[in-house]
Amino acid sequence: MTVPLLSLQGLTKAYPGVVANDQVSFDIGEGEVHALLGENGAGKSTLVKMIYGLVKPDSGQMLLRGAPFAPAEPRAARADGIAMVFQHFSLFDALNVAENIALGMENPPAMRDLASRIREVSETYGLPLDPFRTVGDLSAGERQRVEIIRCLLQDPKLLIMDEPTSVLTPQEVEILFETLQKLRSEGTSILYISHKLEEIRKLCDHATILRLGKNVGECTPAETSARDMAEMMVGTALKTPTRSDRIVGNVALDISGLSVPAPSAFGTSLKNVHLTVRKGEILGIGGVAGNGQDELLAVLSGEALSAADAVKLHGKPIGRLGPVARRRLGLLSAPEERLGHAAAPDMSLTENALLTAAVRENLENRGFLNWPAAKAFAKRVISEFDVRTPGPENAARSLSGGNLQKFVIGREVLQRPEVLVVNQPTWGVDASAAAAIRQSLLDLAAGGAAIICISQDLDELMEISDSFAALNEGRLSAPRAAAGLTVDEIGLMMGGAHGMEVAHV
Amino acid sequence: MDLSAINPVLLIASLMVAATPLLLAAVGELVVEKAGVLNLGVEGMMIVGAIAGFATAVESGSPLLGFVVAAIAGAALSTLFAILTQFAQANQVASGLSLTLFGLGLSALMGQSYVGIKPPQMQDIHFPLLSDLPVVGPILFTHDIILYFGIALTAAIWAVLKYSRVGLILRAVGENHDAAHALGYKVLRIRVLAILFGGACAGMGGAYISLIRVPQWTEGMTAGIGWIALALVVFASWKPWRVLLGAYLFGGVTVVQLNLQAAGVAIPVEYLAMSPYLITIVVLVILSADKSSAPAALGRNFHASR
Q1: What is the pLDDT at residue A341?
Q2: Interface pTM (ipTM) of the complex?
Q3: Chain B, window 168-207: residues with a beta carbon less than 8 angstroms from a chain A beta carbon
Q4: Which residues of chain B have a CB within 8 Å of the CB of A75?
Q5: Given a cut of 90, is residue B168 above it in pLDDT?
Q6: Nearest CB to B296 within list A75, A89, A94
Q7: N or C, fewer C-beta in 10 Å, chain A?
């Protein structure tokens, strides 16, 4: 048997109050794309940080081609051919592409030589990039290219990618996969972290599954179904959200002839949008990102105002009311961007709970805050939605993406909304948490609330919605009953093949 | 009113002298801020440098040794700031303000026995031929070594920040300390070194006031130059050459208004006295209208665990 490129043996790392990794062992072969799977908080990030020298293991050892490997710092790991593309890009906005790349190299050549090498590599791997552009002006996909090229210039033996596709459009994912295939064919090993199971089935040769810091199994993704992998991650049979029979009542929210100009040069204007949602109904709104989803949410939540009678709640015009007034009337919303839009990153969960629930949960009294009640409400969200955090006094920023998403959705659901608008409710959330969030939306609808779910995950929309409409360049297609819709029909609603290509640009 | 009493050659020569303390303090603070640290203690470090340099020069008879000790004193005081903000994670604004107050008090204590003494004079450098040129000679080539050092330092900082790897790392730390840390750079070490450098520059700037510009020791003699230096860095959009321009503008207007006062121009003294501040800020505000912005991590503390 050949010596594996990197062999992890019994790696353990404990943080105060939590064991992030417990006796994790596995091997990565030469030229292998190895997936590291696990729920949010399963210890994937800690594990790769140990390989990259950012965190020291408490015990256990690593062997690189049979020789002991214990990088004291990232520099040492890079010198041994380990390169890493971070989940949250580690880039410097004010610097240009070449400067950013130089910072990640041990002995960067002069800027002019570096620029020509960047061009060379970016052409070889099909990742177009101008070395002298300022990184702050680049799109998410282009920023990731900067990181990948930074790694490739060092001729890595092992490339670690921490959830690389969570910020990419489907086209960018395609380009990335082609690049990774090419790298594999050249003998580079890749450690690929993700919880998008279909991607892993498509790309990876081998998978290791972590649960609560422990290695709980291995599989060959191409031969394992996504459902089986998800169940290995969660440790129990995956609960598929169940629909109970719902009684669809009167129209709760009625939008007619809504047109709103684009809020910024990069936004989309909404054009003559019509929709109605009844009590107990879930309306799913699909469409490729950037076709007016954020703008629609803003108009519904009250962040953007419209003509008064373009938006009616129970027949009452509310187009000119702000978010607080709408909350008082029972129209609640949970935006897509968790940090900074749905939650204030540096404030505690209690404070974040107060920010949206003060009106409906009576957490304030004539301008004075009722802290005990706010804390109790935050605790209720944490326990009912299984948010994993030491307590409500922790900052929103300290939660992993999936946990914060559960908190953000739970906070709205527990306020007993009459109409709830959510945008991308399970974005970047692992399978079991996503199932829990969907179930809570279904339960809420069963209780008589009207729900608008904006999402780019068509499977999700088909799973929970009663009727379906699609956004395309700011126009909303006529809603249709979701049951029995075919993929082709949905594609046509999203603007057809031609329209979709346009929308992607 | 007798404007003919103003000698333009002497005027320009003395504006360079008036600008140097400000220039030294401001380029030092520029480096500190480029590393992402906001040290509001410039005024305090300057005045401590002023008395430390003054006392050393008086006791040893060597003004140059005075400057060296002033730099060490400024750096020593900034060490306090570095410990508070980088290791104890104290708020940078509050720590900087207290550093200024502490420096003002400390310098008054240190300087009690030095009031009214004249320090040894710093010799001007004599360039063969160049210094004897008419007009240009007295303006450019008959100054003390520290003034030239200030200009050279500005050029060096510009070149290091723009072209060297050290400068790139320094800017990276000031731009995004989490990313710099993830790439394996020692954020705290780089910031502490930048703070010490800024302290040394401020100390020398202070000593320039007490040893050359004035030259004598009086309590609180920096008279807000440290604050102007802070404002200058911002309005110069963190660009070394603009700092130089702003410092010379400020020095120039200061000297001109003093000359106008002496010549008895019929403008109230208060207006003349405020003019350097006003004109410098107006010009730099106009200049800073381009898109250049502050280092993104400016004033934010770094802790590896977050």
Answers
A1: 84
A2: 0.78
A3: 168-169, 171-172, 175-176, 178-180, 182-185
A4: 184
A5: yes
A6: A94
A7: N
The answer to whether residue A90 neighbours chain B at the CB level (below 8 Å) is yes
A125-182 pLDDT, tens digit each: 878 888 888 887 777 778 888 888 888 888 889 999 887 776 666 677 788 888 888 8
Q: What integer is the mean pLDDT of B3-9?
A: 75
Residue in the block written with tokens 């909303």: A476
Token pair in block for residue A119: 């061009």
CB contact under 8 Å between A92 and B175, yes or no, is yes
Average pLDDT of chain A?
A: 84
Q: What CA–CA distance (Å, rounded) separates A505 from A136? A: 20
How many other C-beta atoms can be found within 10 angstroms of the C-beta atom of residue B182?
19
Is the separation of the CB atoms in B19 and B250 below 8 Å? yes
pLDDT greater than 70 at residue B116: yes
Contact (CB<8Å) A108/B165? yes
Q: Backbone phi, then psi, for A191, in 5-degree steps? A: -105, 115
Domain ranges of chain A: 6-234, 251-504
What totals of helices (H) and strands (E) does chain A contain, helices first? 17, 23
Which residues are CB-contacts of B49 (< 8 A; sequence separation ≥ 6)? B70, B71, B73, B74, B202, B203, B204, B205, B206, B207
From B21, B92, B78, B5, select the one nearest B243 (Cα to Cα): B21
Section B71-93 average pLDDT = 94
- Taking an 8 Å cut-off on Cβ atoms, the answer to whether A94 and B184 are in contact is no
The beta-carbon neighbor of B171 closest among A89, A95, A108 is A95
Partners of B176 on chain A (C-beta within 8 Å) are: 90-93
Of B179, B184, B296, the CB nearest to A73: B184
As its CATH architecture, domain B3-119+145-287 has Orthogonal Bundle (1.10)
State the Cα–Cα distance between residues A162 and A187, nearest whole angstrom. 20
Rounded Cα–Cα distance for residues B245 and B15 (Å)? 12
Which of B162, B165, B178, B183 is the mutation pick for testing A, counting most A CBs within 10 A? B183
Contacts of B168 in chain A (CB under 8 A): 95, 99, 102-103
Contact assignment for B179 to A93 by CB distance below 8 Å: no
CB of B118 within 8 Å of a chain A CB? The answer is no
Helices (H), A170-211: 170-185, 197-203
Q: Domain-by-domain residue ranges, chain B?
A: 3-119+145-287
The stretch B231-256 carries a mean pLDDT of: 90
Closest of A179, A185, A169, A232 to residue A37, by C-alpha:
A232
Which residue ranges in chain A fall short of pLDDT 70? 1, 17, 40, 87-89, 166-170, 236-239, 244-245, 265-266, 495-505
- The minimal CB distance from A92 to the residues B176, B184, B293 is found for B176
Substitution target in B169, B173, B175 with the highest count of A β-carbons within 10 Å is B175
Determine the residue among A103, A106, A111 to mutate to test chain B binding: the one whose Cβ has the most chain B Cβ atoms within 10 Å: A103
How would residue B230 be classed by pLDDT, with cut points 50, 70 and 90?
very high
Class of domain A6-234: alpha beta
Of A74, A93, A99, the CB nearest to B183: A74
CATH of domain A251-504: 3.40.50.300
Distances from the Cα of A496 to the Cα of A287, A488, A500, angstroms: 11, 9, 6
